[in-house]
């Protein structure tokens, strides 16, 4: 038989055999949604951008739709299109700024549009007229983030133009909180006040008030004044708190865990160095194992000689620099075997490593840890 004639395993099948994998517990996401609903007592727009914060866009969105979530939020139209192609009919808002050439796709896939300036409004009107169908839009007001949106203090003409538009139906008006993760920051209440002033233009115009939404995960936890008509949980939905300072007013369960297995075991003699740059040396003969995951998978290189993993229910340090595809762990005089489970995020026996723990050790935020775990790592789903 010639090479290529034999039926070989598909790459997707080989990936599923990889010892490194992410496990996502969908019932935990459902639990978190229920807890957020109970806290806010208003409809929920579940934010599933960035591959549902690394949890898997389509499987997570399907589960949320089955739980009756009111709306989904994505960053870019291609994320919304992927959900529509997966058969998900829940309303979807694209939160990011728009580009004119993309607008036809919003209509083709029934996506709601963020309109963030008078110029963008005119672009959307022209696109809607060209297809003979009204656009469903949310007006973006900038209350202090300085990212996209019309400044709250000058948004009157923008709101008036949107209300008067023949080709746009205003579904919502919203802003984004810059400091809501910190319950002591005065910035959030300043933004609440600015947003209220912006929304007052609808009353002055005698127009119906659209759905007002302001609260992100930090707002949900720390500032009930931000809950208004709808809340937009992101990282909280996945069982992770946005900041160590955030109040634990919602009891959530982490949905993601990251696992691998020992792929190699050796004894490293006293005085020898480990990994690139020879930055880590063992002071005595030590047992060292290799784990097949690296920064090429999105596991942070910043954890070099600073991160920890769990093996056989004990916590061990990462030894030396994390490589693109592997790293080493110093287990000192303990024992481990090839194919032993290694937990990078999650629990093992009585020990646990949270996403928040990893973020602190990497000198970053939990958001970056979750969204950095890329598609080279296969995902498996429970529930």
Outline of the structure:
With 383 residues, the protein is an alpha/beta fold. The protein contains twelve helices and 21 strands.
What does this protein structure show overall?
- With 383 residues, the protein is an alpha/beta fold.
- It folds into two domains: 26-238, TIM Barrel (Alpha-Beta Barrel); 256-382, Lyase, Ornithine Decarboxylase, Chain A, domain 1, CATH 2.40.37.10.
- The protein is 30% helix and 25% strand.
- It has twelve helices and 21 strands.
- It has helices spanning 11-16, 26-40, 49-54, 57-66, 77-85, 103-108, 118-131, 156-164, 187-205, 217-222, 355-362, 366-372, and strands spanning 21-25, 45-47, 71-74, 92-94, 112-115, 135-142, 150-151, 168-174, 211-215, 230-231, 256-261, 264-268, 273-274, 280-281, 286-291, 308-311, 314-319, 327-332, 341-348, 351-353, 379-382.
- The strands form three sheets. Strands 1, 11, 12, 15, 16, 17, 18, 19, 20 and 21 form a ten-stranded mixed β-sheet that branches. Strands 2, 3, 4, 5, 6, 7, 8, 9 and 10 form a nine-stranded parallel β-sheet that branches.
- Strand 17 and strand 18 (327-332) form a beta hairpin.
- The longest helix has 19 residues, at 187-205.
């Amino acid at each position: 038989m010639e090479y290529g004639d034999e039926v070989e395993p598909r790459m997707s099948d080989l990936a599923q055999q990889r010892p490194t994998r992410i496990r996502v517990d969908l019932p935990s996401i459902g639990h978190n949604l229920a807890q957020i609903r109970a806290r806010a007592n208003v409809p929920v727009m579940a934010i599933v951008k960035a591959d549902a914060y690394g949890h898997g866009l389509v499987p997570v969105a399907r589960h949320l739709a089955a739980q009756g979530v009111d709306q989904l939020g994505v960053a870019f139209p291609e994320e919304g299109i992927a959900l529509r192609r997966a058969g998900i009919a829940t309303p979807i808002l694209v939160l990011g700024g728009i580009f004119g050439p993309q607008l036809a796709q919003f209509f083709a896939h029934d996506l709601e549009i963020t309109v963030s300036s008078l110029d963008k409004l005119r672009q959307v009107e022209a696109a809607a007229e060209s297809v003979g169908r009204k656009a469903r839009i949310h007006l973006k007001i900038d209350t202090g983030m300085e990212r996209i949106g019309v400044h709250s203090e000058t948004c009157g003409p923008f709101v008036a133009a949107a209300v008067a538009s023949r080709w746009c139906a205003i579904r919502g008006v919203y802003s984004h909180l810059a400091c809501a993760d910190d319950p002591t920051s005065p910035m959030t209440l300043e933004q609440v006040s600015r947003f209220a002033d912006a929304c007052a233009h609808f009353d002055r115009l005698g127009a119906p008030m659209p759905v007002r939404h302001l609260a992100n995960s930090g707002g949900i936890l720390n500032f009930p004044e931000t809950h208004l008509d709808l809340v937009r949980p992101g990282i909280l939905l996945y069982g992770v708190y946005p900041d160590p300072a955030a109040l634990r007013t919602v009891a959530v369960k982490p949905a993601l865990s990251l696992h691998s297995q020992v792929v190699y075991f050796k004894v490293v003699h006293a005085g020898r160095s480990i990994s690139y740059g020879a930055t880590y040396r063992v002071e005595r003969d030590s047992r060292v194992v290799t784990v097949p995951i690296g920064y090429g998978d999105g596991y942070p290189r910043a954890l070099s000689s600073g991160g920890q993993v769990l093996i056989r229910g004990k916590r061990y340090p990462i030894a030396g620099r994390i490589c693109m595809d592997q790293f080493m762990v110093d287990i000192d005089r303990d024992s481990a075997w090839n194919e032993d489970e290694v937990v990078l995020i999650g629990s093992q026996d009585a020990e646990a490593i949270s996403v928040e723990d990893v973020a602190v050790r990497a000198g970053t935020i939990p958001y970056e840890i979750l969204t950095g775990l890329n598609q080279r790592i296969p995902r498996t789903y429970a529930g």
